[in-house]
Specification:
Blueprint lengths: L3 E8 L5 H14 L5 E8 L5 E3 L2 E2 L2 H5 L4 E4 L10 H9 L8 H8 L1 H10 L7 E4 L2 H14 L4 E5 L9 E3 L2 H13 L4 E5 L4 E9 L6 E3 L3 E4 L9 H5 L4 E3 L6 H17 L5 E9 L2 E8 L9 H8 L4 H14 L3
Parallel strand pairs: 1-2, 1-5
Antiparallel strand pairs: 2-3, 3-4, 6-9, 7-8, 7-9, 10-11, 10-12, 10-14, 12-13, 14-15
Length: 323
Amino acid sequence: MHGTVVGVLRGGPSSEHDVSLKTGAAILKNLPADRFTARDIFIDRQGVWHERGIPVSPERVLRNVDAIVIGLHGEYGEDGEVQKLLERFGVPYTGSNSLSSYLAMHKVLAKQHALDIELLTPRYHLVEKAEDLERIAHEVVQTFLQPVIVKPVAAGSSVGMALTHGYDPLVEAATAILNAGAGVLIEERIQGREATVGVVEGLRDEEHYVLPPIEIIPPPSEQFFSYAAKYGGETREICPGPFPKEVTKELMRAAKEIHKALGLRHYSRSDFIVSPRGIYYLETNTLPGMTEQSLMPKALAAVGVKFEDFLTHLVHLAIKKKI
């Protein structure tokens, strides 16, 4: 056994369970074995924790670790729920605290914080009740250019996201999300180049080290960076993205400022559209993916940071900043 005992949470009761399994596997594979003893903590789709294949209470697991690396995505992992649990047991963990995680995951609250710091963000409507859908759908069709983006107000990996043209498809897509128990964000579609920018605290002695923007170019078969485009292997991801110098500078500034405005910690990755009308903020991921296809490891590699060194850095941040 070596040094610090680090539990890696993966799986979870979210629509991103499978992606989280891959993120967790990549973290377990790359945590330096000469520094850490890694524990694989699997959470099934019902939310039951397992260690070494045996169901176990969170309390029992957490008594035996020095820190937790959260490899979860989506509901429970990224919305502040698991963070509340870890805070209750006083276990240091990687990523943002429960309140900031909730704020960032809720796309409308994140947009409001973006507007507060004068970032552009697409116009939108929020539908939380089925009885409001008809009225809002009519308004959207009359006032937004078609097509529009329809997505759950709090989910990641573009799960449940649709591009709709006209009234009936909009109502159908929104109803499916409402029936799944989620609020619906209907957003104007901004045409432009998609960019994503990572921020890491304390890297290379910078309070907020901003990674180079990545340009994301989905395959022609996909109209946006959908779940299939994200994990299908056909999307082109160019790092550093070939944006004009001023655009690169503004993307990096915006990512840093929204990280701060949302009160995030350790690391984050924010998504933008670079359009002729300006740079539009879309959303922030507080636990960005760490699979082999993921964007954060790619951006780290572009500036010469090895994945295992980044994970070591995260664990050290967590232990130093114990809640």
